[in-house]
Amino acid sequence: MRWQDFGSSDNVEDRRGEGGGGGGFGFPGGGAGGLGIGTIVILCIIGWVTGINPAILIGGAEQMTGGREPQQERVGPQTRSQRSNKPTDENGRFASAILKNTEDVWSQVLPNQTGKQYRPTTMVLYTGGTRSGCGSAKAAMGPFYCPLDKKVYLDTSFFKEMERKFGVKGDFAYAYVIAHEVGHHIQGELGILGKVQSRQQAAGQVEGNRLSVRVELMADCLAGVWAKNSNDKYNSLEQGDIEEAMQAASAIGDDKLQEQSQGYAVPDSFTHGSSAQRMRWFMTGYKSGQTRSCDTFRAAAN
């Protein structure tokens, strides 16, 4: 991907260096997306306090951890310069560039296709652990979107984790992850997350999981819409980029992750969708380039 041509976003908080991530007492993955039990308990408590269905918060904690255990948070003081300075390392510059391109694309696509003005999300870069509007953010949770503060949280070491644990690499695979989280922000801007929350509060566990899957597949589709429109306007894609996204989507399907962790898959417990579903919905968005093609709540998600 020709990300070096994108420029840098002004909506990045670089909190790396403020501390966090010492060796702590973790619990092996046993819940949604391979998250540690301790992390899930925290998210459930946050949901109870804030009134947000925990499935939304857990769904936001992306599931590419492969069972990595959460770490105790040790957050130190944060300087003004750490917040305001644009990243200078390659991972930070890459994340900032991808965010900038999503801003450029969605600021045109969203009004044109939905009549809604796009208000950009902020990306928080951190190391080990930090604070979010949804509670503690930890590297073990993977990248996630917090609907309370409308920010995307990313520990940039996650890119190495993708390669080490899943064999997934390539700049567009990493860009897909960021675009997926921005997709959740789009859902928030369109009022979808709030509606799903209301439905989940009246639903049982299985139906709540199914709604979470719909939310996640829509975010995959919106990432595809971004990729299509970015390439049409900026000629941003290179040969092999779409294959990288497909590899990433396949690697993080609920079925594949559950089979790797416990030897079998339990569809009723899926919160993000199967590998086939995630690949199909990304390609749905990429082929159409239209936000309306991403209505996973009316279409068959299989």
Structure explained in plain terms:
The protein is of the alpha/beta class. It has one domain (3-294). It is 51% helix and 8% strand. The chain is built from eleven helices and six strands. It has helices at 37-50, 54-60, 80-84, 90-114, 158-166, 171-189, 192-201, 205-234, 241-251, 254-262, 275-288, and strands at 12-14, 122-126, 129-132, 135-138, 144-146, 151-155. The strands form two sheets. It has a four-stranded mixed sheet with strand order 1-2-6-5. Strands 3-4 form a two-stranded antiparallel sheet.
Describe the secondary structure blueprint for this structure.
Blueprint: E1 12-14, H1 37-50, H2 54-60, H3 80-84, H4 90-114, E2 122-126, E3 129-132, E4 135-138, E5 144-146, E6 151-155, H5 158-166, H6 171-189, H7 192-201, H8 205-234, H9 241-251, H10 254-262, H11 275-288
Parallel strand pairs: 1-2, 2-6
Antiparallel strand pairs: 3-4, 5-6
Helix pairs in contact: 1-2, 2-8, 4-6, 4-8, 6-8, 6-9, 7-8, 8-11, 9-11
Shape from CA axes? globular
- On the 0 to 100 scale, the average pLDDT is 81
The parts where pLDDT drops under 50 for at least 5 residues are 20-42, 44-53, 62-82
Major beta-sheet overview: 4 strands, mixed
The SS-based structural class is alpha/beta
Overall number of structural domains: 1
Strand content: 5-15%
Adjacency order of strands in the biggest sheet: 1-2-6-5
Instruction: Please work out how many helical segments DSSP would assign.
Output: 11
The N- to C-terminal Cα distance equals 29 Å
H and E order: EHHHHEEEEEHHHHHHH
How many DSSP E strands? Answer: 6
